[in-house]
Structure formats: C-alpha cells, structure tokens
Amino acid sequence: MQCIVLGSGGMMPMPQRRLTSLALRHAGRVYLFDCGEGTQLPYKELHVGLRALTVVATTHLHADHVLGLPGLLMLRAQMPDPPPLTLLGVPGLRRFIEHVRADLGMFINYPIQVIEWSGDPQAPAYRDDQVTIYWQPLDHRVLCLGYRLEEHERPGRFDPAAAARLGVPCGPLWGQLQHGSEVLLSGGAIVRPEQVLGLPRRGRHVAFITDTAPCAGLQPLLRAVDLAFIEGMFAAAEQADADEKRHLTAIQAAQAARRAEARRVILVHLSPRYDAAAAQALGVEAAAHHPLLEVARDGLLVELPLPD
Amino acid sequence: MQCIVLGSGGMMPMPQRRLTSLALRHAGRVYLFDCGEGTQLPYKELHVGLRALTVVATTHLHADHVLGLPGLLMLRAQMPDPPPLTLLGVPGLRRFIEHVRADLGMFINYPIQVIEWSGDPQAPAYRDDQVTIYWQPLDHRVLCLGYRLEEHERPGRFDPAAAARLGVPCGPLWGQLQHGSEVLLSGGAIVRPEQVLGLPRRGRHVAFITDTAPCAGLQPLLRAVDLAFIEGMFAAAEQADADEKRHLTAIQAAQAARRAEARRVILVHLSPRYDAAAAQALGVEAAAHHPLLEVARDGLLVELPLPD
C-alpha cells in the first residue's frame, strides 16, 4: 500500500505546493482523495496509474478540492476502453459533474457512478474486495466529509505446529487451510481453518481529513489509524482565522490525532501564506503534540507496511 | 505592449507545456486570451498583474480553454476591492460561469460582465480608450472564435517646421496641438492640429487564433497584423488527424498568416504528442512557409514596439 501526495497546499495552487490531493495505491487500484485544479499534472508526472484509478473521494464542493476533476475525467477518456469510475462526495457533486459535462461538451467514454453522502455515517461510502471506505461529516462552512479507508482483515497467522498435531501433511493442504478452506485428511478426519489459524489480522487504515474545525467526526475517522493525512492549514498564531474559516491549526490536527491514537500524521492543505521555512516551523510546533508527525511535501511517497 | 505566453500546449497540461493562454499587457491593462486548467499558476509566477486583468477572451467552450477561469476569478477575489472584469466568448459561456459559481459556492466580490458572440463579426467584442477587440467565427467541432486586438490609431507625427511657419511659438502650444486641440495665437490666428500633424499612425495589431480548420474567418483576423499567435497543433504528417479534428497544421497556420501578410507568427496550442525536439521540427517545417515564425515556449515574453 502506497500513499502519494500529489499536492499539499490549500486554497490556491502554488509553484511549490499544488492543491491537496492524495493517491492511495493498493492491490492494483488507486483511490484518490480530493482533486483540485491541476491535479492531472502530478497524477501523470508521478506515474500514479490512470487505468488503476477506481475511486475519487471528494471532501466538499469548494473549487480547490474538485476543479481538477473534469480534466482528470477527460484524461482518463484518452486510454483505450477505460474501466468505470466511482466518485464519492456530498450532495451536489452529481449536479456539478453533470453541468460541467454538458456545458463543456466533455468526451467521457466510460460509466461514472456518483455516490453522494447519505446522511448515515454507519453506511460505508464504498466497498470492494480489498478495502472499505467510511465517511463522516465534519465542521466546515459547507458540508464537508472526512474519509477513512480500511483494508480488509487478513486471515490469522498459520500455525505449522498445530497443523502437524492434527496430522495435516506439509504441502498443498496447508495452503488450502491458509486460504480459509477446510480439508479432508486421507484418514477421513476434517480439519477446519480456525484450528490452525490465529486470530484474523487487521489491515491497514488510513484517514484523509481536511477543511474542518475540531468536531466529533474526527475521532471515529482517526481512531488508531496507521496513517492520517490531516489539514494543517494554519499556525497556532492564526487560531482566530482558523476558527472563523472553520479550519484546523496544525496543533489542533496533531492533538486530535493523538487523542485518537493515530500512529502517524502527515499534515497537508497548508495555507499559501506559508513558504517552505514557515511550513517547517508549522511542523515543529505541531510535532510537540504528536510523536510521529511531519509536514507533507508534493510528491511524497509513503510505503505503508502490513501491521504485525 | 507585451505579449506573454502563459502556456503553449493543447488538449491537456504537460509539465513543460501548459495549456495555451496568452496575456497581452498594454497601458496598465491585461487582456487574457483563453484560460485552461492551471492558468492561474503561470499568471502568478510570471507576475502578469491581477489588478490589471480587464478582459478574458475565450475562444470556445472546450475544457482545455476555459477550465482555469473559475480559479482565476477566485484568485482575483483575494485582493482588496477588485475592479470589474469582462469575459468574452461564445453563447453558453455565461451559463458555464453561472453553473460553476453556484455549484461550488464561489466567492466573487466584483462585477463580471459576460459578452457572448452576437453573430455579427462587424460589431467589436470590446472597446476601451486604448484598444478594440474584434472576433470572427472559425471552423472547429463547436462554435469557436478567433480574436484580433487593435490598438487605437495615434495622432500623426508633429511637424515643427510647419508649426514655425504658422507662427506657433515653441512651448506648451505645441503640446496642445500634438494632443489634438486647436490653439489661439497671440496675434489672433487659430491653428488646427491637422495643420501641423501628419496622417494618423496606426496602432499595433495582434491576432489570437486556435482550434480551427482553414476557413474564411482567418483572413480578416490576420490581415497585416504585427504579431499572430496561431495554433500549430499538428505536423504536416498528421494532416488527416488535423482535418478530422478541425485543427490547423503548423504549415497551414504559416500559410494563412503569409497570405494575410501577418508580419510575425508564434505557434501555440501544440499537441501533447510533441516533445521539445518534435516541436522544434514542427517549427522548421512551418518556417519554410512564413518569413518570421517561431514555436512558442511557456513563459515567452514578446515586446511589441510601436510601428514607425
């Protein structure tokens, strides 16, 4: 599982900090989170993989989070026989896409399924054979969603000693048990997977949260995730600005992540007011509130290993 | 008068060739021609001047020509007390802007006047105290407009000998005559400007033409312009592709410019299929058909001197 920061800025694209967009690549699929103006450029430059793009999850209908969608949709129409695409977002996303498609006569040669927030945080936004994506409403000036992607549980660890005790010969029968099938031994006995496997092992969990004041939705999204991408829009000195505009300061992001025992934090969606040095300082003040926190740079690639 | 190539590519933004957009800066105003996704970035980087932006002329409603507009409009809303803005384009431009404003809740704190093609090529698209912008329909897959910007005529050259013969003393009266006012001499005689000025001198003329097959509209747009920005979308080897998609090859652009006696040509809107070397080759084959032709690169700035 790889996370690739296509952009780490908020509000407007800057030469060194494009608008925030995160690509999560796993098992041959790409899940993209937000898609501001210009996202197609780093998407191509970083070789994220157009055919693999399966889901684009958008947080809210502000221009800096969705204006790159039309271009990306058209880019995807350039390859032969593009697979279907799923878009997630707030109510109004479908209308935005339909308007821009019609107004600009966009050429799109594949099915697009738009799934809008239903109002029920228990109902997953999306599910395939590898991952489930959950969403929660946050607290911004307009309805804004945070996301949590969970890799499905893997079967428990195989116990060779237990298999030997039960008389399962080393060979293909081990593999069948590991993959969850019961096996028939030559002596007539049946061995079930749970007799030789440990407890199911949890998959990797990643959160993507931007454009919100501190709110109740943060905790379920961040709870014990392996990696959280959270906006660090403002320095603590700009707390009043953050409150008024319904954004997190970098410190608030770190504190929320720590409370939820998120293991690692990468700050994204930095205000264009911060140059590289100021962004560094922002990271320093936030790192005092979380043990494993850094500020994103455009193009950052994080390999997320399987948990033990 | 300065022309600044913000981008020189067609169809999709590329790392070294952004989408075609041209800024023409003159007398404290900026006239922008086309505005594809990401245009706000070179607009900022090249310090074109946000407050000076007065007109955005769009050729047609395909995504690669207008998807940068919403971002640029919002960027312009960030400065204190932004002046009004005029948008030019085909019918449907207003609806596109209205949809995206409403769908994305865009913050715009200045008046936007949208002027859509009226069907009458004689009626100028826009006029202020410095320039007039004309338009013509071209031949693309959808209605597409070409533009010609004309600087107003300047008064004729002042003839000091004629002034002396008429008894106008050297001093402030000369200036009044130069600026078009008649003057009363101390002896009671009246001298009119045309007695001491040569014929009015023409201003600078610039054409912006992209996304069209060869058509009748090209000649009035290109006729004797000082500088023509024309699409050189395809090499001659791709003539069939150009015909089918209603684009010009670089050679066709050069030939049209030569027929119209356009003095200088800069090719823009190159296909993303061409790398730097291929673009160079495109320029070489086109340059055989026009005496003063080059291929644009992003960031190119051309100072256009006053004609003699």
Descriptive report:
Two copies of one chain form a homodimer. Chain A is α/β, with parallel strands linked by helices. The first copy, chain A, folds into two domains: 2-154 and 201-303, Ribonuclease Z/Hydroxyacylglutathione hydrolase-like (Metallo-beta-lactamase, Chain A, 4-Layer Sandwich), CATH 3.60.15; 160-195, no CATH class. Chain A contains ten helices and 16 strands. Chain A has helices spanning 40-45, 63-66, 69-76, 93-103, 160-165, 172-178, 218-222, 239-245, 250-259, 276-287; strands spanning 2-7, 21-26, 29-33, 53-57, 85-89, 112-116, 126-127, 131-137, 145-151, 183-184, 190-191, 205-209, 227-231, 265-268, 293-295, 301-303. The first copy, chain A, has a seven-stranded mixed beta sheet with strand order 6-5-4-3-2-1-16, with no helix packed on it. Chain A has a seven-stranded mixed beta sheet with strand order 7-8-9-12-13-14-15. In chain A, helix 4 (93-103) links the parallel strand 5 and strand 6. The longest helix of chain A has 12 residues, at 276-287. The two termini of chain A are 15 Å apart. The model of chain A has no long low-confidence stretch (mean pLDDT 96). At the A-B interface, helix 1, helix 2, helix 3 and helix 4 of A face helix 1, helix 2, helix 3 and helix 4 of B.
